[in-house]
Amino acid sequence: MSNRKFCWFMFTVLTLGLLLPQIGFSADKPLVIAFRGDASRLDPHSRNETTNSSIVRHFYEPLVQLNQELKPTPSLATSWKKIDNLTWEFTLRKGVTFQNGEPFNAAAAKFSIERCKTHPKSQFNYLVPDYEAITVVDDNTLRYKTMKPSSEMLIMLNFVSMVPPKYFTEWDAKDWTHLNQNPVGTGPYKLVEWVKSEHMKITAYDKWWGGNVDFPEVTIRPIPEDATRVAALVSGEVDVAWGIPIPDISRVERDKGTYVSRVASSRVIYLLFDMFTDKGGAAPEMQPGIEAGTRNPFKDIRVRKAIAHAINVDEIIKYVMEGSAYPANQIVTKYVDGYNSSIKKPEYNPELSKQLLAEAGYPNGFKFNFDSPNDRYINDQSVTEAIAYQLRKIGLNPNVIAQPKAVFFPKISRFESPLYLAGWGTLSWQATFSTFYKEMKKGQGRMNRGRYHDPEMDKRIDVASMEMNDKKRQELRGSVAADVDALYYTLPLYAQENVFGFSNRVVGKARVDERIYAFDLKKK
């Protein structure tokens, strides 16, 4: 080879070496995260569900966020102070813009909070503390005056996303569905492409106030089949897998290229009874899940108590959950301010159950529908069937109906189930007790599908929610929790364990709140 040709050859090689990373052949491939499902709506106020909220958080941010230790930390608010028991003042982050160029300021924060509270499609309205006034002091200062004291203000604001006022006002008027497909927030990522039920591609927002993320290009994939999701992780097809199934934990741990991270969840799996209808028949006045014309047995506390004593939760945790769960004694976990550690779980005592059924007039049991999702919680259908097996031992005849969550949740919302299994995970005592045990009406009682109602309990929940003295608040909340437990209306079973899988190129950690955020992950 002549000197001239050799020089040209070397020039070509060096030039390509410099250009290859710029034309897409970088060794840093996109981060791929596999969830069990896909987002359903990208309007951040419209869908309160774990997977949806995890994905939406890449685009939208709150004023205050909960870190991995569940402590309130600054996000779009850099600091806050309590002026009095009703008034909070927030100092907002300066120089932040939404991804369409609109400025983030106090006016935008006010608009966002009010929209989240009042929009007809909002599923987060109960998480916005009732306000007397939200005042723009200046561009970077917002004052929030509640109608009653709210000790959980900071926790609740973690769930309220900030949105650009002009953009949302325009599309709320034109076509609300546009907001479900075209997110515009202040968050670390922007949407590039969304092929529903297949993949979502997002890219780093170069003007994000938080600086650079370790993974600027991210692909989010919904992989509902557990075995397929685990296989994708082990093969290197994905880097992060939400919810490693219990039988596959050891497989991921053994693989040289992957690892798992485990943590006790804030999500409690529970049973809930219909305490409202008098007899079987068409919903909502009657209960279609029991024989038409017969009285509703679950209105009798002896029946509910019999079922509580017939369920061997320890056995379910050991054999169905393979140890990957923690017994629960109430609808909230130890992470929540107001958790009552003195409440005892019902003792497993099937003989007592039979006695209680006989006293209630059901010595030979009765038939009823027992509903559950089959694709929402870890081993949800298997747990429901295990409980049904235990209930048959005391003479009951449950008919298990396990359905996809898209069918299950609308069904129970139509009051068509006399007994169902579901899960609840939150860090707010106020939101939990208001949504489960207060009368179902605007802004409260959303999960009170058994339609329990006691005006005195409504008042006690309000008082316990408003108390600002830590010791007094704990006493009030503990008392409410104990009295609710004595109703046997909701039967807490266990708290799930969050088990997430990671490839070795990623440094990640399972979160108590079940979220996975690309911006939390680091390169190894």
Written description of the protein model:
- There is one protein chain.
- The protein is α+β, with helices and mostly antiparallel strands.
- It folds into three domains: 133 residues, Dipeptide-binding Protein, domain 1 (Alpha-Beta Complex), CATH 3.90.76.10; 114 residues, 3-Layer(aba) Sandwich (D-Maltodextrin-Binding Protein, domain 2); 232 residues, Dipeptide-binding Protein, domain 3, CATH 3.10.105.
- It is 30% helix and 22% strand.
- It is built from 15 helices and 19 strands.
- The strands form five sheets. Strands 1, 8, 9, 10, 11, 12, 13, 16 and 17 form a nine-stranded mixed beta sheet that branches. A four-stranded antiparallel beta sheet has the order 4-5-7-6, with helices on one face.
- A hairpin with a 4-residue loop joins β4 and β5.
- The relative contact order is 0.14.
Strand and helix layout:
Layout: H1 3-19, E1 31-35, H2 50-56, E2 64-66, E3 72-74, E4 77-82, E5 87-92, H3 106-118, E6 131-138, E7 141-146, H4 153-157, H5 165-174, E8 189-195, E9 199-204, E10 217-222, H6 226-235, E11 240-241, H7 249-254, E12 258-273, H8 301-310, H9 313-320, E13 325-327, H10 350-359, E14 367-373, H11 380-392, E15 397-403, H12 405-413, E16 419-425, H13 429-437, H14 455-466, H15 470-485, E17 490-503, E18 506-507, E19 522-523
Summarize the structure.
The chain has 524 residues and is of the alpha+beta class. Helix content is 30%, strand content 22%.
